[in-house]
Amino acid sequence: MSTPTTSNAIESGPPHVHHMDAPTAYHAAKLGMWLFLATEVLLFGGLFTAFALYRYVYFAEFQAASVNLDWRMGALNTAFLIFSSFTAALAMDAAQHGDNAKVRRNILITLACGVVFLVVKYFEYKGKVAYGLFPYGVKGFENFLFVGALCLAIGASGVVIFTHNAKLKIPTILASIALVVAFYFLKGSIATISFDLANLFPFGHAHHPETKMVFNSPEFNTAYKSYFGLYYCMTGLHALHVILGMGILFWVYLKALNNRFSANYYTPVELGALYWHLVDLIWIYLFPLLYLVG
Amino acid sequence: MSHSETHAEGTNYLNCQKGIWSWMTTLDHKRIALMYLFTLTFFFFVGGLSALVVRTELFAAGAQFLTPKQYNNFFTIHGVVMVFLFIVPGIPAIMGNFLLPLMIGAKDVAFPRLNLLSYYIYIIGAVMALISLVPINTLPFISQGFSDWLVNTAGLGGPVDTGWTFYAPYSLAKSGTQSAVIWMTGAAFVLGFSSILTGLNFIVTVHKLRAPGMTWGRLPVFVWATYATAIIQTLATPVVGISLLLVIMERVFGVGIFDPTLGGDPILYSHLFWFYSHPVVYIMVLPAFGVIGEIIPVFSRKPIFGYKMVCGATFGIALIGFVVWAHHMFTSIGDTAAYVFSFLTFFVAVPTAVKVFNWVSTMYKGSISFNTPMLYAMSFVFLFMIAGTTGIYLATLAVDVFYHDTYFVVAHFHYTMQGGAVIGLIAALHFWFPKMTGKMYNETISKLTFVLVMIGFNLTFLPQFVLGMKGMPRRYFDYTGLEHFDLLQTLHATSTVGAYINALGYFLALINLLYFFWFGKTKAPANPFNSLSLEWQTQSPPIHENFAETPIVTDWTYGYGTKKDA
Amino acid sequence: MSNEHKHDNQDVESHDHELGHIVPFKIYVTIFSSLIALTILTVVVAKAPIFHFGNTINLIVAMLLASVKAGLVSLFFMHLKYENPITWMYVFFPIFLLFIMMAGIFIDNPMRTLP
Predict the structure, then answer these.
(1) Which residues of C fall within a CB distance of 8 Å from A71?
(2) Which of A132, B15, B156, B377 lies 20 to 30 A from B67 at CA?
(3) What values do phi and psi take at B543, rounded to 5?
């Protein structure tokens, strides 16, 4: 890694904002981000409330249903997210010291952890789908993946539109559209192939034959449906936030490529890191609730 | 002021840049406010027309010109458009955007690009709502296969008839045109996102961009009201976001959260929905309180009475508004909860009454001039008193069990929504019209429209209180054969006539303002009403960045009738 | 310039002349290791039979441990410790609202007397 030089820096120092001075802009952006995080807390709060209520009402069923989740996978993911949160904090620290190379390195580690998290999550979902614990079965899971790809594409396009890197704009948007279209028409084969791949690795689902149930079979209690419905909604929404957070951090990474950050301008790194920490925070609560105490 | 440009004489935010593109990409909060104004006015008339359709159907007993299904569609359209597309963004997005930076002496809101983004998110939501209204399967030029695909895969097809609340078991039904629920709730979700971003922007603006000397104790009442509103917008909206998202998830993936057949509890949906939708009525009406708090002192030439109490009451309403939501569900929740929420609901009356007393006391012994904005403001106080006192009836558990889902409720919330929020918005539009456009409107016509609106409004909704007391349920297509049939018939007919007069009043008001915006000859002075507030100290219409020099504030804005008020 | 005026008559929240606080590297490492340790503790308490005190207590313990972890992340990773009171207010008010919401729903559903 070469040391950042001023020659390839497009601009240095905080961007000019016409209606306030730079420190005010920094503090305003940070307060805005905290407020946005507050809305995220309440967004997940609705789900946590629903979970609390149904856990109270269907206590025995929730206990029984939660053993279908493999707590080792959850713990693994927790560790990865905590580590990524740590590196995100380090990226922010590096930005405060004006070390763009270190910002890039830490963000890449964070992004890698995010990818690992999603892969582990995929294996978990896949395990449940193969087991029949997904409402619409394999077909529904294809749609689920399609929604994920759609969000990824929209996020990537959004990120690139808002960066100053003009060369990346058109290709990313085209690639996103191609991804969505391809996913829409090929989602059946993609699901099959990924299932075959996933079958090479024999983990992702805690096997408890005594609770062997299939979601749409008549003897599958409504309370279990409630548990799995909440499980997919909570972890799915969280996974969506992981994707979103990765998008934001990728945008920060592109800025760090231009050596944009210095000791007096690091707002994007801090905002991206704040968002990533929130993703971590939500998971810190989801893990014991869903995997451990059910 | 590092960037104080010299502004040529006659340059203002309206004409500093030309062309439609300069409007679509503008970051100026005043231009964004005007864009909201025109978009929202359009949706106000869409919602208003569907209300007229509903009222016309109810003019006489029996089917007039709609089928019951279409009737349900029309009152749903009326509710969704009026609530999500008009009143909730209403005063905050139009007047808040325009006035907040001006009133605190800032050049713009804290995040101008975010501001424009929330406008476009609003547009996306509005388009989604409009798409969901299209009855795909009846369109002649679409092939059967394609329309099936649209209905089954894309979830389109025909206006929904769930009512604006999307109550759970019904919004989850898979039959008929209900597939459009996905688009409609999706639209509400997107609109909520726009609302969140606007609120967030306002909170940061108030915290970070006040002019030197503009302390919290000197902020105008409208800024306080907008700030309290912004808190509700930011913190309540995510909850409805998640509940609508869960409805979509249930419909798309068949997971069981609200659907009783899948183990869900439909009342939980009502809880989550009203946890947002009760505070949302304060999103609608708090900024109107702020508007009235600005207008009454100016036209009474007196300082606002009890400034601290007015501001405190604003926050009191906002906070209490968060703990009373279940009074919308008295007939479906358990007894214990019903007692608790009934008890808590009464507390809303306290800060609301404080505000009413303060407005009336501000007028007391003032030298009142009856300009149109003042007339609207005074009618607001009158109408809101009716709204508030009937609200106390509905907060009373024993009474509400009988009034629940009758026209009494309809009349009550129209007195708050229309008599409060809409009248407040119209008062604000008349009061700040010279500032926004640099023109003066015709006072005689606007007083005439005021009379029409007042007569029409009261003629529409006063009879509905009686209708409700006589047991007329809301959302009924027909009332043939109900008890007190003759009385119901008369009252419904009166109400319909009133609705037409009311609509005529609004239409005239629109024509009046639009005409004088474009063709008005009288140039407005900087401060036609002798207000002391900051926004009147710059020229009309304001220049691009509001003030030629950052103002330095030395006193509060309500020093009317004192030495400074020359 | 307006900056001088801004300084003397605005309240606490606008000491906006310096940017964020720099946290020593050592603290980040300490927090990270405590988070991992707490995660292990959470799993052990939930899964080891000797720690099984009953479902409610285990739930409370798990949630308390999660809250400690969340507190550590927000205080040090997110620099909440060095933030101004306004930010603190907007951190705690939503959580307060969340509890209000849960309380409201819990005085309804479990106490509902069904016919």
Answers:
(1) 43, 46-47
(2) B156
(3) -75, 175
